[in-house]
Input
Amino acid sequence: KNISLNHFAGKFRTRLTISAFNSMFKINRLCFQLTNAPAHYLNQLKVFVSNVRLIAGESGKLLRLNVFVAVMQSVLPLLSIFLIKLMIDSLSKPNATDMIWMHPYFLVGLTGVVFLINGLLGDYRSVSMEKLIQSVTRETFARLQDKHLTLDLSYFESANKQDAAHQAVQEAAYRPMRVISNLLSLVRSVVSALLIFVLYLTIDWYYILILIIAIAPGFIFKVKYARKYFDFKKSRRTDERLMNYFNRVMTAQPFAKEIRLFGFSSYFKHRYESVQQSLFKSKIEMLQKEFRQ
Output
């Protein structure tokens, strides 16, 4: 009995020691991440700004105009809510109606003007956004074509460089405008958050902490996921190019006769589905891993 008891105590001490070391390691890693987090996110912000400048190019004026419209569309809805609140206060407090800016009729007219401006901005945003899309897309493809026309012929002998060129061609149609859309969404979110912060300050300061706790995890996850998704796309661009090749062979006109004549349709379709399944499975696994973390 004494031997078994000593054996149990020894195993317990060993597991306790290992658990203590693992806990200390996790705490040290968390402290390191928290210490380097500001510099990391500042560097990510600098990279994002440089990418936006590269994408905008000569469309900087249109981009600034759309940013201004996004700011106004974030401010005006909250302003209309504030005016409605003032209107209710003016009706519930008759003594306050002596001031012209607190008169119900004045507030009703001002609220109508705000709604009108917001509606006009919505219509104008559609036009300005379309101009920005056309300008950025035209400039992106012009830059991409100029780059391809000046590449050395040895560039096309490298599989890795061909993968990079394929990724650039495939993403040129949507990636620049996705960055622009994310920028405008970020501007609207930041402006709305700042206005809500000011509103919460007028109520109780600790509401801001609750709001930060609610917003911060999603923001951090999005920043981390965006970088990992880009690295994932970069690591699997060979499979994407191979999948695009199989699809082109099955659907393009120059290969139609040979595919039917020699009966290669089932082979290419099987290879395409195999690569596609492997690529999609990797994406799902990456998303599940990010969700668990």
About this structure: Residues 209 and 267 are 59 Å apart (CA to CA). The two ends are 44 Å apart (CA to CA).
